[in-house]
Amino acid sequence: MSITTVNKEITNLQGTWELSNGVRMPYFGLGVWKAEDGKEVINAVKWALAAGYRHIDTAKAYDNEEGVGKAIKESGIPREDIFLTSKLWNSDQGYEATLEAFEKTLSRLDTDYLDLYLIHWPVEGKYKDTWRALEKLYKDGKIKAIGVSNFLEHHLKDLMQDAEIKPMVDQLEFHPWLVQKDLQKFCKENGIQYEAWSPLMQGKAFKNETLKQLGEKYSKSPAHIVLRWDLQNGVITIPKSTSKDHIESNAAIFDFELTEEDMQTINALDKHERIGPDPDNFDF
Question: Is the pLDDT of residue 148 over 50?
Answer without folding.
Answer: yes
